[in-house]
Amino acid sequence: MTATKPGDGRITVLFVDDEPPALRAIERAMGRTAFQVLTAGTPTDALKLMGEKRVDVLVSDIDMPEMSGLDLAQVTRRDHPNVVRMLLTGHATMEKALHAINEGEVARFFTKPFDANLFVDAMDKFIERILRLRVDSESGAKAARSDELKKWLESRFPGAEKATRSPAGEVIIDIPALLDMVDRAAAPGLRDMLRREG
């Protein structure tokens, strides 16, 4: 697994191929583009990378021994739905690639040998979709963190999550009631801090 450059807001494309010379050729060809390029030699490595880094586009060889590119696209669709999935295929597997497009598993396929110019031209049609999916993904992650914090707050201080707002939208905090909740939670340091803030 390699990353050519650190993440910097550019669209990240992960190429997966079990043939090292093919990956090296793709890296060389894509080095002249504006994309951040990641590579993986196996579907397992690809799934690990997608779990660790933001990946916008997956381009996988269709024929690999451990797991086919079609299977990888299906797993990615399930576990990383905001990743746009594409296939890299030889002419012998064209029918499989067309089937995957029709089933919604992949958005596009490219034939071998890989043509970086054709890929860059094709990506122009996907930029808006990729950026929308990225925003959706980040919004979902923020909402999940917010929900987690609310659950923790409610478990430690029952009723604390329920906030009253003024007509102007300001949160109204009943300090005596909050101090009572803190006392019940046996958090004296927090009580002292709230008294200083009040």
Brief write-up:
The chain has 198 residues and is an alpha/beta fold.
Question: Can you offer a commentary on this structure?
Answer:
With 198 residues, the chain is α/β, with parallel strands linked by helices. The chain has two domains: 2-134, Response regulator (Rossmann fold), CATH 3.40.50.2300; 157-197, no CATH class. Helix content is 50%, strand content 16%. It is built from eight helices and eight strands, in the order ββαβαβαβαβααββαα. The protein has helices spanning 20-30, 43-52, 69-79, 94-102, 116-123, 127-156, 175-184, 188-197; strands at residues 2-3, 12-16, 36-40, 57-61, 84-89, 108-111, 164-165, 171-172. The protein has a six-stranded mixed beta sheet with strand order 1-3-2-4-5-6, sandwiched between helices. The chain has a two-stranded antiparallel ribbon with strand order 7-8. Helix 4 links the parallel strand 5 (84-89) and strand 6 (108-111). Helix 7 packs antiparallel against helix 8. It starts with a strand and ends with a helix. Mean pLDDT is 77; it is low at 1-7.
Which key phrases capture this entry?
16% strand, alpha/beta, 198 residues, 6-stranded mixed sheet, two-stranded antiparallel ribbon, Rossmann fold
